[in-house]
Amino acid sequence: MARYDNILDTIGHTPLVRLNRLAPEHVNLYVKVEAFNPMGSVKDRMARAIIEDAEASGALQPGQTVIEATSGNTGIGLAMVCAQKGYPLVVTMAENFSVERRKMLRFLGARVVLTPAAEKGTGMLKKAEELAREHGWFLCRQFDNPANARVHMRTTVPEILSDMQGQPLYAFVTGFGTGGTLNGVAHGLREHSPDTKIIAAEPDNAQVLGSGVAQPRDAEGNPVGSHPNFKPHLMQGWSPDFISSLTEQALSQGLIDRIQPVPGEGAMRTSRRLAREEGIFVGTSSGATLHAALEVAARAPVGANIVCMLPDTGERYLSTPLFADIEEDMNEAELAVSRSTPGYRFDAGSSPAPAPAASAPELDEDAQRFVRDITRNTPVVMFALEWCEFCWSARKLFSAMGVDYESVDLDSVAYQDNNRGNNIRAVLLQETGSPTIPQIYVGGRHIGGCTELFDYQRSGEFATALGQLGIEPREYREDPYGLLPQWLHSRAS
Ligand code: PMP
After folding, report:
1. Residues 95, 117 contacting (CB under 8 angstroms)
2. Mean per-residue pLDDT pooled into runs of 10, the chain (493 residues)
3. Ligand 1: centre distance to CA 243 (Å)
């Protein structure tokens, strides 16, 4: 199918891909690449299933707010589903999770309520429960919700079996977070492919299943406190600090054939090898699951078919230890490549000068009048380009100081007719002696570009000039250079 009624119909049907370099030759090792889901993770399946299950049961009413405690893929999947279906979503999240995640959720229209880092996972869960109780919101309860397992029975298992085209499946390898994947796939395969071994992988330093130690629970079966063997580990999305009811059920029903411990360093190394040797770009838990699958493969009989889950995309991990060794700046080898030709280098003066214009353009009288009038009559004017990041940095300062300004966006549609934008640029070049944009004027006086504006602000002159124009700016105490694009900081450092 290549045409869909809505984005939710693109969830699932993820490809099963054979590994040709990383796997030993005597087996067929296939990875199920869940990054192909619309928001890039396996949790899209669960997000849709929980919402649609609640719609069907009446637990979720039209327009009702949905809430969940989640730091990652679940929230991102829910944000997509709620956006598509029109439910407001609130996500509670401890303050120490990466800023990217908050921003992604808010970009999708969710509200993010932060909880103190000191109160850990429990704090964000309790806050979600409290808000749901007080406001009558629908709490998803991904760790206990049976819809989370059922969706894997209904979708993941038939997909795998159909893609195997009747060939026997020797083993299925997965980690567990909520245990939805483990529980649902294990149940489905036990029914439709009973000889398939179910392998559950977990961090080697936090063996909550492998230890055989029971999770402390209250009379109703809810986990009480952390599992005694839990330790913080590197596999984000795997093994929370307690055994969830979905995981416990798979365990107590004897659905798990083997528990495979995985070292954190091995997980990250395997993720990088997947990227570099197979071209498959996935996150830490994917590397961890494959690390476990390679252990299984090494001991598997000749010709065995093995399926390994890869839960999400690598793009979500740029600020995590997975990318810690990936440099921002050029290393020696890259510098050597740069130096191997003369131009466009940082260490050899300027790049070849652009060819001079055939003839200096005549200044357009309308453009001259326009620049003169607007700079005289408007207190703060910025000649800008819509796409220019320096212009955006200057806009941020104006906005932080509450300063109204006129932005003349020279590349916008409004300035395209009769070459107006370029005519104005030519006037600015003559007036300021500078070919760059932005050019900023305050009270008719030319200040310069973005960094000149920042210097003007730092020295206090900007506030004084505004005062003389009868404008009372908000005080701005930070260093305006912090408003420059992030990539500029890394180059300058
Ligand atoms: N890996 C990642 C990156 C995840 O976000 C999750 C879900 N928390 C898992 C693995 C585990 O999946 P499940 O919740 O179905 O056990």
Report:
1. yes
2. 92 98 98 98 98 98 97 94 98 86 94 89 90 98 96 98 98 97 98 98 96 93 89 89 94 98 97 98 97 98 98 92 91 93 76 57 90 96 92 95 96 93 94 92 95 95 95 94 76 40
3. 14
* Whether residue 120 lies in the annotated active site: no
| Domain locations along the chain | 1-327, 367-492
Query: Closest residue (by CA) to atom 10 of ligand 1?
Result: 237
How far apart CA 174 and CA 152 sit, in angstroms, is 12
- Residues 6+ away with beta carbon under 8 Å from 489: none
Domain at 1-327: CATH code: 3.40.50.1100
Judge whether 231 counts as a catalytic residue: no
Tell me the CA distances in angstroms from 16 to 26, 35, 370, one per residue in order.
18, 12, 62
Residues with CB under 6 A from ligand 1: 41-43, 72-73, 175-182, 236-238, 283, 285, 311-312
* Best of 32, 42, 271 for a ligand 1 pocket test (most atoms within 8 Å of beta carbon): 42
Task: Give the class (CATH, top level) of 367-492.
Answer: alpha beta
The pTM score is 0.82
Task: Tell me what pLDDT residue 80 has.
Answer: 98
Given the residues 239, 244, 271, 285, select the one marked as catalytic: 285
- Report the separation in Å between the CA atom of 159 and the middle of ligand 1, taken as the mean of its atom positions: 18
What span, in angstroms and rounded, lies between the C-alpha atoms of 159 and 21? 24
